[in-house]
Write a structure and sequence with these properties.
The structure holds two protein chains of two kinds. Chain A is an all-alpha fold. Chain A contains 22 helices and three strands. In chain A, 71% of the residues lie in helices and 3% in strands. The chains are: A mainly alpha, B mainly alpha. Chains A and B meet through α11, α16, α19, β3 and α20 of A and α2, α3 and β1 of B.
Amino acid sequence: MWLIDIPPFVPFFITALLALITRGRIRNLILLATPVLGGVHLWLDVSPGIVTAVSIMDYELILMRTDRLSLLFGYIFHIAAFIAAIFALHVRDTTQTVSSLLYTGSALGAVFAGDLITLFIFWELLAISSVFLIWAGRTERAIHSGMRYLVIQVSSGMLLLAGALVHYYQTGSLAFDYIGLEGISGWLIFLAFGIKCAFPLLHTWLTDAYPEATPTGTVFLSVFTTKVAVYALARGFPGTELLVYIGAVMTCFPIFYAVIENDLRRVLAYSLINQLGFMVCGIGVGTALALNGTVAHAFSHILYKALLFMSMGAVLYRAGTIKASDLGGLYKSMPKTASLCIIGACSISAFPLFSGFVSKSMVMAAMIEEGYDYVWLALLFASAGVFHHAGIKIPYFAFFAHDSGIRTREAPLNMLIAMSIAAVLCILIGLQPQYLYVLLPWEVEYWPYDTTHVLSQLQLLFFSALAFVWLNKQGIYPPEMHAVNIDAEWLYRKFMPDTARSVYGFLKQTGHRIEDTFDSTLKDAAKSMISTRFGRFNLAASWPTGSMVFWIAIILGVFLLADVITLNLPVSSRQ
Amino acid sequence: MNEPESEIVEKQRLFDNPRNVSLVIGSLYSVCILLFLLDFILHRHATNEWEGFAGFYSLFGFTACVTLVLIAKQLRRILKRKEDYYDVAD
């Protein structure tokens, strides 16, 4: 097809340009053809070990470096881009189309980047291209949310750049390989990755912005940014023990928010962080099994998360709201979307025969193998929790629960096709995991289907379901209601603006008070001054600032003159 | 004359019938009982000490979810704000 050493982001950037000048069927055709051709090309022609570099001003940018790790992320990004493109095929909004293409290209650029400067460039492009998918929501809330998202994302890039430069200063190399937490550079880069990976307290951009994007935009967003960060962590910080604990917190805290959150896309955003937690734990453990588990989980996660965001996008598109309190009974009008959503729910909950099961169990097994018993217990808690909020809550409140009376139509055909492809892949990976395992970067013997795994997982899940039913029947389950829950973002969305406002108010008031006290005295003094004989002179007619500038100009002039004169003197006498 | 009538009287769907709902819940109960009992029949290969207890996963799954919901419910007292909480600027 085309040359093997053309970096995979290039076709997407070219298509983004073409999307600007084409319309209708031709545009749809190139939108679908790009991920297909790019993906097939990557699969058939590109093998590990290819390096493509370009020189810019004495510096060599490694635009493409392939190995089994980057290639696997390359494959799944192409698959996801194809599915998301079908899902968004009805969209007649050039901004969204172009930015989603640039965004996909940037993600591919980042995972194939061979040096930290190239990584930085695509890191920032990811931020800038994706924010338009949020702004395309075109509500005031989306615009503000997008602005906060952009500020946080760009600062992540700044940290990465700073870290890269310190790293270069210390090691003399900008190659993007193992970095580790040694020295300030390691920490700066770690923090940069951590922001994009939604580490606890750095996660607010995700739960803030993803639910505000367009129904189709959120699907793209859910795929790329965070998974690029997982890839970057897996390459730069494998075996960093701190990540085990960060990951464990990431799996646990979002599920509490997910239970009481009313916006179902925000529930999915919280559960996205929970799933990232499993991957981060795997990177922290750092054994071959754990890292394979992380990569496999990223692969299957992209598909089922996209499927869930697509089903909720379809509900939002048809019903006009995504608030759990206003939805319910939609299985009557959208039975196909409901079934597809349930497949996504089974996959994220890691039911045997679905994709989540075959990938998450690798991370769990590696955890026990390395003796992280208590963290494993936390992850088990989170596994039960994810079934509770993503597996049951999402389909239950949207499609079943009490009948909200909303009667609408089934999702458009393109949406159904996109969701079906994702659903088929979720089941295929669950049934035939060997096809995924063979692609994994490290050589490990692992098979998820034995009596122990299947039985224990089924017990965990069915008894979680039992708990849901019991809580509902007892009336203990918290009702869905119109409300927001404050999170770490409260710090910069409420506390800091409020403090600034009150400090400003205090200063303003104090200023007024000072003015009130001294104003009349000063004015009287000025009046009496003018009434004396000095009032006749020119300087008294001007504002004090005017005369000050006048005198400073004169003083500076004198200095200049003095300097010019002394220039002609012998050097010895100037000292 | 038939048309407007069909708009008013909606077709009865799967879960409009309470019998179907109790059927689903009933089967959930039976599956749970079955899975719990299987723990005593099948051998689970335990890799750490907790896992080895019969019924560990069943009890853990149930208590984990109940705890999760009860804590989340209490958290609502601290975290819940009006929907326009962040929109209000003076």
